[in-house]
Design brief:
Blueprint lengths: L6 H5 L7 H14 L5 E5 L4 H11 L5 E6 L2 H12 L3 E6 L8 H10 L3 E7 L1 E2 L4 E2 L2 H11 L2 E5 L11 H4 L3 E5 L11 E5 L1 H9 L11 H9 L12 H17 L1 H22 L4 E2 L12 E4 L6 H11 L5 E3 L8 E4 L8 H17 L6 H10 L3
Parallel strand pairs: 2-3, 2-4, 4-7, 7-8
Antiparallel strand pairs: 1-9, 5-6, 8-9, 10-11, 11-13, 12-13
Helix pairs in contact: 2-10, 5-6, 11-13, 11-14, 12-13, 13-14
Length: about 375
């Protein structure tokens, strides 16, 4: 039984979140994205608005270009096919980024393409894509442009209005250092029109962005359609206030520094550890992926490093990459050179135990000296 004066009791005893408070948090998100578009805060993690965007924006008989630079692109392709769209997958190696020229080529080859889905940064593979240039190409073609910016927001510039992004989905749990259970999407006028004209778009459904427009936005944001996820909403507000206090440029700079330090430190460490994403310009500031030496097992290496310090933001690659690749998740509070130095020291010690030759001191110096 929780004592009435115990602090956790107050978390369960909050007055309901008002519509005005909810709308104020939406305005903070719009400001974070420098967008004039409508922002909808969705009450679930980012797969909720991503699926809502795809099921509203794609329709039976339409054609979508799905850019695959990691596992999330594969998920989007499945939803697009499920929505009845014809899907053109543009796949690039996971150790690189897609170029605007490759997107332009795919669009030229498919004049009927009317929807483009892209992941800005893929934390799972450690790459990031040049959205500004891609947006220009997509807008010239006339397609609707959906961007998954969950892993990029807060770690690198994100300007949906300037880049011509019609649907920009974010989550707070990575670089923003916020809660995982709430997400948001900015929706352009073109996107609203596409949803409204699509008889297959979800309506009277938790996946429906149109419901939010009709019941929330068009009504002047006076009555919430359902009870919001209150703790997550308050945590989202707190995280945006923290970003405001630090300054968005400072937050992004911290992530860029951590990424540069990880690449430089891993290369100096030796022992066969090397950046998984070949070119530094294609590497995401949110997380750095590293290829382990031939014969080593990334999962075993990470387990050994974490046994020494369980707080380090290290994880083995997912699925097929679990043996060959690991990643340093230097995002949010972990986007510091100290965390990077500790992570590489632990990986270096784990590699040394397998008989590899490593230079811990050279890695430490490279982390300190790295510039982004």
């Amino acid at each position: 039984m929780t004592h009435p004066h115990h602090p956790t009791h107050h978390l369960l005893d909050l007055a309901p979140l008002t519509a005005a408070h909810f709308a104020a948090i939406e305005r903070q998100v719009a400001s974070l994205l420098s967008t004039e578009q409508d922002v909808v805060i969705t009450q679930g993690e980012a797969l909720l608005p991503l699926e809502g965007c795809i099921r509203g924006g794609a329709r039976p008989g339409s054609t979508a270009l799905n850019v695959v630079t990691g596992p999330y692109g594969q998920t989007f392709g499945n939803w697009l096919r499920d929505s009845g769209a014809n899907v053109v997958d543009l796949e690039v190696p996971f150790h690189a980024a897609v170029s605007a020229a490759q997107v332009a080529q795919a669009l030229d080859a498919g004049p009927e393409i009317d929807f483009v889905s892209l992941v800005h940064a893929e934390a799972a593979t450690g790459n990031t894509n040049p959205v500004a240039e891609i947006g220009e190409v997509v807008r010239a073609h006339g397609a609707l442009f959906m961007l998954d910016a969950v892993a990029s927001v807060g770690a690198e510039p994100l300007l949906p209005d300037v880049w011509g992004v019609d649907l920009c989905v974010i989550g707070a749990q990575k670089a923003m250092g916020g809660p995982a259970g709430v997400s948001a999407v900015s929706v352009s006028e073109r996107a609203w029109a596409r949803f409204a004209a699509n008889p297959a778009a979800p309506r009277r459904s938790y996946l429906s962005l149109l419901d939010w427009k009709e019941r929330w936005i068009d009504g002047g944001r006076r009555v919430l359609p359902h009870a919001p996820a209150q703790l997550e909403m308050l945590a989202l507000q707190a995280c945006m206030e923290r970003i405001d206090a630090e300054g968005m440029d400072a937050v992004m700079s911290r992530h860029a520094s951590a990424a540069a330090a990880t690449r430089a430190g891993a290369s100096a460490l030796g022992g066969g550890l090397e950046p998984y994403v070949y070119e530094a310009r294609d590497a995401a500031p949110v997380a750095t992926t590293l290829r382990v030496p031939a014969g080593a097992d990334a999962s075993a290496l990470v387990a050994r490093a974490l046994a020494a310090d369980p707080s380090l933001p290290l994880i083995a690659g997912g699925g097929a990459l679990a043996k060959e690749m690991l990643r340093v998740n230097h995002y949010g509070a972990d986007a510091t050179r100290d965390v990077v130095a500790s992570s590489l020291a632990a990986l270096g010690a784990a590699l040394a135990e397998t008989g590899a030759t490593v230079d811990l001191e050279a890695a430490r110096r490279a982390v300190t000296a790295a510039r982004h």
